[in-house]
Amino acid sequence: MNQPIRGYTLTQWVGSGGMGEVYQAYHTATQRTVAIKMLSRVEQAERFRNEAAVQASLRHPHIALVYEFFVENNLSCLVLEYIEGPTIEQYIKKSGPLSEEVAWNLLAQIASAMDYLHNRGIVHRDLKAGNVKIARQGKAKLLDFGLARFANSPKLTHEGYVIGTTGSMAPEQFSGQSSSASDCWALGVLLYEMLTGQSPFGGSTLSEISRRIQKADYVAPQKLNPRLSKASERLIDKLLTVSPDRRFTARQVVEALRHPHLLDSPDWVGQMRKWWDRVKP
Fold first, then answer.
1. Could you give the C-alpha distances from 59 to 55, 120, 124, 128, in angstroms and in order?
2. pTM for this predicted structure
3. Theoretical Cys-Cys bridge with 109: which of 116, 140, 203, 241, CB 3.0 to 4.6 Å?
4. Is 216 in the same domain as 117?
5. Contact status, residue 58 vs residue 46, Cβ threshold 8 Å
6. Can you give the CATH number for the domain in which 257 is found?
7. pLDDT digits (tens, 9 = 90+) for 165-191
8. One domain, residues 190 and 232
């Protein structure tokens, strides 16, 4: 592990990403601590290069930076900003649900990052609690762009191939379709998990989870956390909506979090549509 790679000394193993192993490393010349993601599956080389190209083009306070990409001894390496702190998933497992104030603050930061991506024609496609770190002073940092792509870039999967993390996937992703609206569904899943400590679409089998997702069939979050405000419940409803066209955009999420009164009025039409989505064959 201590054998330098392009001037980087690996100091400890951090975990596994979508396509490779991630290590903490130290660069002697710049005295910078970084994260290095190393490709573990040669057949995924094209997707790994795509991840580097997508993330290297981004500059946003809530998206981890890419410093460089290189190939050394046939080993593809992506050098990233090292973020100290737990992922949201790790935090929930250790400490349980977040307070509404903290959850809203984190969601506002993540939604801002998603709005930035969507305005540049980029769909993340794998937003989840395990891909967001909570850094110092409660700053959210979005990680892992292994499944992201530009809207006009070539597809790296076969048509109809399901891609993503099942529990956070939008209904349309089960048909191989994804868009910015799919990322917004994942925002709803993330908010639900932060406020309740549970996934909205749990199940014992993948087919059961898929069925529940495609009907937006989830337990009302207030039943799991009675202290939640109506605003949180309505925001989740606006995001966990079967039709992509009716979901809140990332920009609308940011605005709603800044101005909660936008969520004051019950959406009776939306509630009827959600009821119909759940009961229709």
1. 9, 12, 15, 20
2. 0.85
3. 140
4. yes
5. no
6. 1.10.510.10
7. 788 889 998 888 888 999 999 999 999
8. yes
